[in-house]
Prior knowledge:
By secondary structure, the protein is mainly alpha-helical.
Amino acid sequence: MTKRKNTPGNSERTKAVILLVITAILWSTSGLLIKLIDWNPLAITGVRSFFAALLMWGYTKRPKLNRSGWQWAAALAYAGTVILFVVANKMTTSANAILLQYTAPIYVVLFARLFLGERTNGIDWVTIVVVLAGMGLFFKEELSPGAFWGNVLAVVSGVCFALTAVLLRKQRDGVPVESVLLGNLMAAVVAIPFVVKEPLPDPKVWLILALMGFFQIGLSYILYTIALKNVSALEGVLVPLLEPLLNPVWVLIFTGEKPGLWALVGGAIVLCAVTFRSLLLTARDAKNRRLCGETAKVN
């Protein structure tokens, strides 16, 4: 009997999906928290990354930042993701930036095949198409033309996000969180000029930045790197698509602003597509393990 390689058990995969959902919830708080801070966006990103790096350094205890080229490649991809996304938000609308960044599943298909040997099946492609259509409906009322270079940077940010997911999974047998630690240090260094040239915010803002760094970025990416050990790279970007869907929920709770009809329809489509794919893969894996068990008994 041929032994299946690197296939996580049902419970491990379920736990990984739960961690991805928690990650998406933590990521989704950024929009609301950033609105509370009147400061340069790149300065916010850098300080947030600095606090996240502190948490990750404590988590890894004695990180090794020279393990491999894959580690540095993942760190550069991560730093590119967070920096380019912030810059894109300044040059185009937030809706454009989020939608274009979350074209990442398309690029993951290519990168996962190239670097991981993970193939994409028909269910994956159907999910990607449905998810992108749902995202388009979700932002239908907010999308705007123009701002060409901002849109370009948002697309590049999506490419970087896809590379981040793939290259972190590439290190699934190592310590992928070290790449995120290194990437946060890079983002913090890049932001130094923007921090020193702006008037420093008050203590309340520093508290918000610390909370964002420790939880919204630091804890979330620790959970994300753990989850990527037991799910495919594609699932590692599909499940976190819940992030933009949750943003209006926080806005509704704390400001009373209600999302539009198209946002509700698009969000429901994305949620259903991602959930259906996860349930289908879980059922398929359970069936395969049962068949393997029956074959083993016969032999």
